[in-house]
């Protein structure tokens, strides 16, 4: 049994009286086995969600269960990935994301602010995937032309602080500022927006982004969780929960996420409808597809969606274990 399953088993023992936690653990056990069987077919983007789970569970303590502190170490959790060759040059630049000490999490909890919901949304995404990657590499210092972290460029500041961006642009903007905080990029301090008369701090920008990611998730829920929108829904929970927005951890959302897992442990790119209206909505267009390159396995299993589901569920465990 690999260390992921051992760690999950430990959590199960100390959480026996918590039905929701046990449901999450059962789901993660199946997802861990699915990864163990198929890890050599995952791309780096798919692996990253498991790395986030690793970091979140390491951060969990369980004082309510009679133990002052129950640290869960996952230093070997992703060891099976060490023998893998990077999928691409882009993947190589994101390899630091797989290190257990990369991800950090806010110790305190906060909530979104509905007064910050955008009064309007841009019709199109604010940037292409390649531009977003370039900005991430500049912060991480991992790109071919960016060997020093925390590079501040006019292009990236403009892209990552643009307001009213829809859908996939928002989590990319948020992730950029998560990276700046992790890398302690004190030179990246927010920006002045054309629509505002004052400078905005990075912390306030993150609140703006998570508030609007919450609004998107509520819209997705209202639409009956169409399959083609679930990856965005899960990503929003994973990232905003990571930086302490507790209102993303709604019980009804947890129940939906748990129900989407297939018996083999994966989450599918497209599949059976849960809601009547979803049957009409599953015919998606190019701008609605997952932005990050995905790998589809047998039974239409999505590496990307499975990984972010794991990351989101890890956030629920951390929330129940630290709040």
Walk me through this protein's architecture.
By secondary structure, the chain is mainly α. It has one domain (3-322). The chain is 47% helix and 1% strand. The protein is built from 12 helices and 2 strands. It has helices at 3-14, 19-38, 44-58, 89-93, 129-140, 154-160, 169-182, 202-222, 230-242, 251-260, 278-281, 303-322, and strands at 191-192, 199-200. Strands 1-2 form a two-stranded antiparallel ribbon. The longest helix is centred in the middle third of the chain and has 21 residues, at 202-222. The chain is globular. Residues 13-17, 62-90 and 272-291 have low confidence and may be disordered.
Characteristics of this structure?
single chain; 323 residues; mainly alpha; two-stranded antiparallel ribbon; 12 helices; 1% strand; globular
Quick structural summary:
The chain has 323 residues and is mainly alpha-helical. The chain is 47% helix and 1% strand.
What is the arithmetic mean of pLDDT? Answer: 78
Taking the sheet with the most strands, its summary is: 2 strands, antiparallel
Structural class: mainly alpha
Q: Count the domains.
A: 1
Helix-strand pattern, N to C? HHHHHHHEEHHHHH
What's the helical proportion of residues?
A: 40-55%
Q: How many helices does DSSP assign?
A: 12
Task: Determine the N-to-C terminus distance.
Answer: 30 Å
Taken from the alpha-carbon principal axes, the silhouette is globular
Ranges where pLDDT stays below 50 over 5 or more residues in a row are: 13-17, 62-90, 272-291
